Each structure stands twice: as structure tokens, then as C-alpha cells.
């Protein structure tokens, strides 16, 4: 396939990386790219199309995380062979569909969660009936007030429901005026960058840490200083030594992403003190705090913030489903005016219809019920995977005893290379990820990250674990 046919157009509305992502997706659905085909490296495509490397990298990361691409380290990046194993007939029918329809529907290629896929809730346990009922009622009762231009800070009943929920379950006292609904977590980061930061500002970023946040902040022009994470979470002393004048820090205090450790109380207090003294901002990413299986849930860092330095973010991606693209940001009271002014210049969080459905879901008690159910279900499913891994790998893997979260981290006890193991597993369609791929600096810590939320039976855990063993035995 000719690389020039991938070239995005600057005059189009969609961001360049998204255009590139879509061109690849369409090329796969159209059969122009086949499972196993090699794609150009980020560097060579960026230079050929005259694009920034970060832009191509972001498109490739998205394609990889959605299962279209597979990275094999130095061997390069390929169209995932897993698309083939989803069924030749399915692939062909996607191609046939694309021949008869003006617009192919390539998402159908990867509609099922991949085994061990990270970051997804249990798709089989979502209360579809309740959701459909609420959404249908919302549509039928659409009043003229709801048909006008929406509030760019988000639908007010949803902001009220979020404020109440955060007060009860996260110890955060806030009113709905401090809550901004955003398009996913990156929408929240975008609002923070545009309101409080400037290109070139220095920020601490956890190492290892959430890849998409790092990429987003870099593409927004921020200069990130990787700060190591240990068994107490982000090492605040090292951050202060390496970049004392940083303007902000992005941190996952409840379950550090991806190691799962909690930021200790002394570190929380040290971080708040540093932010107060330096007038720096703390972005608290509380993406999956709802899922904790033993011990008491830790209150949010924001609940300890006496000086108005913490910007708190939460998402509905893990507690409902990521396709909703709804998240939220709670800003310090003193900054509400600035955030409203900025939100008024931006497109806002989109249609009020899904926001209204989430608001009803929360107000009518379905949300609390769903969370309770999911907590029990995930504790069980986590147990299936941990038991199967322990049986199959014995002392070669050490599953970290994280108190919560929706993935497990299994550290390698030998000197084996986690990237090589993860690439071998991915080439067999298993969406295992290497801890090293989430790190900026090399450390001796090696491990495999595995999602468990969609492992619904002990037998399924055993089968997948056997496949993982087989895929990795030669590495
Ligand atoms: C560390 C972390 N933060 C935030 C999010 C939420 O992102 P979003 O709201 O865009 O789905 C995720 C999702 O996987 C995550 O892993």
C-alpha cells in the first residue's frame, strides 16, 4: 500500500492523528492491508508524510491498543494476525461489506474484547436493559430546554449527581459548580492545559505511568520529567530534586497506573506541601478507585487539599463503559471562573443525551448497585486469573498483591525480557502488555500486565493461561 494514500489533510476538522488512525483502520477493513502485513516505522512514516513523530506515534498507539496493530519490538509493527484468527469469514465479510457499502464498519473487526485486554470493564455484565430503558425515556421526554445549546461545562443534573457521589464515596466536598464534564480523561487534561498551563511548562509524570496521558501532555507542548514510582507510589523527593520548579504533576494516588500501589500518606502530604509552596498544580487521576477488594478505600488526595492545588479527574470508562467517552474534572473553588471562561470557548462534552442517561442512572440508585455488583464480580474474576497463573507459572511469576484495580501485574522472577514475552503473547492474539513498555527509564523491574474483567469462568482463565505459557515458552 502506498504511504501517500494515508496522508491526512490539515484542513479537515479531525485531528491529524485521528485521520491517520482512520485511514489505517479503513485500509484494514478494505483488505488493502492484511493481517500480518508490516507497516512503516513511526519515524519513516513521519518523515515521508512530513508529520510530527508524536502524531504518528499517537495514531499507532491507538491502533495497537484497539487490537489493529501489533508491535514486535525491533522487528517492527504489523497488522495484528489476531484479525485473521477472529475468523477468515468475518474478515472476508468485512471486506465484502466494504465493497457494497459506501462506509465500511471496521469496528466490527474487533468488537470482542481481546483476551487479557487492559482497561475494559466486564462487557457481559453491563445492565443493558436498565440503560436502554433510561435512555429511551430520556429521548421520549426530551424537552425544549434540553434541545437548546447545552452548557459547555456539562449537563447540570449530571454535575450535581457527580458532586454528591464524590462527597459520599471519595470524601471530596464540592458543589456542582466545581465539576466539569469532559470527553474522556484527555478532555479533562485538555481543559487543565488550556486554562492553567502554557506550552513549555515542566510537569512531573509517574515512571512507569499511563502512556496516553504522557503522549497527550507532550502533544500539548508540556515538558515532562519522569519521576520514579516505588512501593509507596510517586517518589516526591526525587521529583523535587530533579525538577523543583515544575508547574504541575500528574499522579494516580489510589492505584498507581500501572503498578497498582497506593501513594502513602507521608508522600501525599509531601506532594501537597510542595504544590502549596511552589504554587504548582496536582492533577489527580482517580480512574478506577471504585474497585478495591480488600482493606478500606483510600480517600482521594483532593480530600486532603487545604490550599486549592488539586485538580481531580474521574472517568465513567471503567465504571460504565469507555464508549460513552464521559469523564469529569473537579477544580479548586478559586479557579472556577477561569475554567468556566475557558470551557465557554471550547466545544464542551457533546450531546446531553448520554449525560442525561448517566445522571438518571446515578440518581435512581442503579450506579451504586452496579458498582457493588462489579466489585464482587471483579474480585471473583481476579481470583480466577491469579489462581490459574499461580498454577501454571509457579514461582516464575509473582502476582503483585494489589488491593484494587482492573488488571494484574505479574512480576518476572527470572531475567526474562518482559517485552519479548509480551510480543510473543500478542502475536498469538493475547493482549498482554510489558511493564517496560510503560516506562521511560530502564529499571530492573520487569512484569506482565493483564486485564481480567472479561475472564468469566475458571476454565477460561486456565485455557488462556495455557495459551500464554505456550506462546512464551521459547522466549
Ligand atoms: C491511568 C488511566 N487514567 C485515565 C483513564 C481514563 O481514560 P478515558 O476517560 O479517556 O477512558 C484510563 C483508562 O484506561 C487510565 O488507564
What does this structure look like?
By secondary structure, the chain is an alpha/beta fold. Helix content is 42%, strand content 13%. It contains 17 helices and 15 strands. The chain has helices at residues 16-29, 42-49, 53-65, 82-85, 88-100, 128-140, 144-147, 156-170, 184-196, 211-219, 236-242, 265-278, 336-343, 352-363, 366-393, 418-427, 458-472, and strands at 38-39, 69-71, 77-79, 179-182, 202-207, 223-230, 233-234, 248-251, 281-285, 310-315, 327-330, 397-399, 407-412, 433-434, 447-451. Helix 10 links the parallel strand 5 (202-207) and strand 6 (223-230). Helix 9 runs parallel beside helix 10. 45% of the residues are buried. Bound molecules: pyridoxal-5'-phosphate. Pyridoxal-5'-phosphate binds next to helix 9.
Indicate the structural class: alpha/beta
How is the largest sheet built, in terms of strand order? 4-11-10-9-8-5-6-7
Q: Mean pLDDT across all residues, rounded?
A: 89
Unreliable stretches covering 5 or more consecutive residues: 87-110
Q: What is the CATH class name of the largest domain?
A: Alpha Beta
Helix count from the secondary structure assignment = 17
Which fold does the CATH topology of the largest domain refer to?
Answer: Aspartate Aminotransferase, domain 2
Compute the separation of the termini in Å.
32 Å
Portion in helices: 40-55%
DSSP strand count: 15
Percent range for β-strand residues? 5-15%
Query: Which architecture name of the largest domain does CATH use?
Result: 3-Layer(aba) Sandwich
The coarse overall form would be globular
Ligands bound here?
A: pyridoxal-5'-phosphate
- The overall number of domains is 3
Task: Calculate Rg over CA atoms.
Answer: 22 Å
The CATH superfamily of the largest domain is identified as Type I PLP-dependent aspartate aminotransferase-like (Major domain)
Amino acid at each position: 500500500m502506498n504511504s501517500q494514500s494515508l496522508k491526512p489533510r490539515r484542513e479537515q476538522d479531525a485531528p491529524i492523528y485521528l485521520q491517520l488512525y482512520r485511514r489505517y483502520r479503513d485500509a484494514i477493513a478494505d483488505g488493502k492491508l492484511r493481517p500480518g502485513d508490516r507497516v512503516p516505522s513511526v519515524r519513516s512514516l513521519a518523515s515521508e508524510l512530513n508529520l510530527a513523530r508524536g502524531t504518528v506515534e499517537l495514531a499507532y498507539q491507538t491502533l495497537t491498543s484497539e487490537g489493529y496493530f501489533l508491535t514486535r519490538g525491533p522487528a517492527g509493527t504489523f497488522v495484528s494476525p489476531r484479525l485473521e484468527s477472529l475468523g477468515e469469514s468475518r474478515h472476508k465479510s468485512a471486506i465484502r461489506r466494504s465493497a457494497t457499502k459506501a462506509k465500511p464498519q471496521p469496528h466490527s473487526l474487533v468488537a470482542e474484547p481481546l483476551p487479557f485486554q487492559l482497561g475494559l470493564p466486564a462487557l457481559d455484565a453491563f445492565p443493558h436493559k436498565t440503560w436502554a430503558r433510561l435512555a429511551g425515556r430520556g429521548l421520549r421526554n426530551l424537552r425544549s430546554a434540553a434541545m437548546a445549546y447545552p452548557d459547555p461545562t456539562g449537563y447540570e443534573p449530571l454535575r450535581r449527581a457527580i458532586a454528591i457521589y464524590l462527597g459520599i464515596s471519595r470524601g471530596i466536598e464540592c458543589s456542582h459548580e466545581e465539576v466539569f464534564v469532559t470527553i474522556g480523561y484527555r478532555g479533562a487534561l485538555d481543559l487543565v492545559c488550556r486554562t492553567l498551563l502554557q506550552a513549555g511548562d515542566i510537569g512531573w509524570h509517574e515512571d512507569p505511568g499511563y502512556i496516553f496521558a504522557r503522549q497527550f501532555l507532550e502533544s500539548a507542548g508540556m515538558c515532562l520529567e519522569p519521576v520514579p514510582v516505588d512501593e509507596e507510589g510517586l517518589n516526591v523527593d526525587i521529583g523535587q530534586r530533579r525538577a523543583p520548579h515544575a508547574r504541575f504533576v500528574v499522579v494516580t494516588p489510589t492505584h498507581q497506573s500501572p503498578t497498582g500501589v497506593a501513594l502513602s500518606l507521608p508522600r501525599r502530604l509531601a506532594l501537597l506541601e510542595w504544590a502549596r509552596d511552589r504554587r504548582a498544580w496536582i492533577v489527580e487521576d482517580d480512574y478506577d478507585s471504585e474497585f478495591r477488594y480488600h482493606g478500606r478505600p483510600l480517600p482521594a488526595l483532593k480530600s486532603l487539599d487545604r490550599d486549592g492545588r488539586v485538580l481531580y479527574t474521574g472517568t465513567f470508562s471503567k465504571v460504565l463503559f469507555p464508549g460513552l467517552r464521559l469523564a469529569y474534572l473537579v477544580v479548586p473553588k478559586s479557579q472556577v471562573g477561569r475554567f468556566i471562561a475557558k470551557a465557554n470557548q471550547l466545544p464542551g462534552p457533546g450531546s446531553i443525551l448520554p449525560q442525561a442517561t448517566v445522571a438518571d442512572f446515578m440518581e435512581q440508585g442503579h450506579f451504586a448497585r452496579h458498582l457493588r455488583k462489579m466489585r464482587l464480580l471483579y474480585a471473583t474474576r481476579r481470583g480466577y486469573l491469579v489462581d490459574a497463573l499461580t498454577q501454571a507459572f509457579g514461582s516464575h511469576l509473582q502476582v503483585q498483591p494489589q488491593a484494587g484495580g482492573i488488571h494484574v501485574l505479574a512480576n518476572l522472577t527470572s531475567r526474562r525480557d518482559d517485552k519479548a514475552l509480551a510480543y510473543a503473547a500478542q502475536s498469538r492474539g493475547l493482549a498482554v502488555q510489558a511493564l517496560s513498555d510503560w516506562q521511560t527509564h530502564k529499571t530492573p523491574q520487569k512484569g506482565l500486565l493483564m486485564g481480567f474483567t472479561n475472564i468469566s469462568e475458571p476454565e477460561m482463565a486456565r485455557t488462556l493461561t495455557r495459551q500464554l505459557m505456550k506462546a512464551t515458552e521459547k522466549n
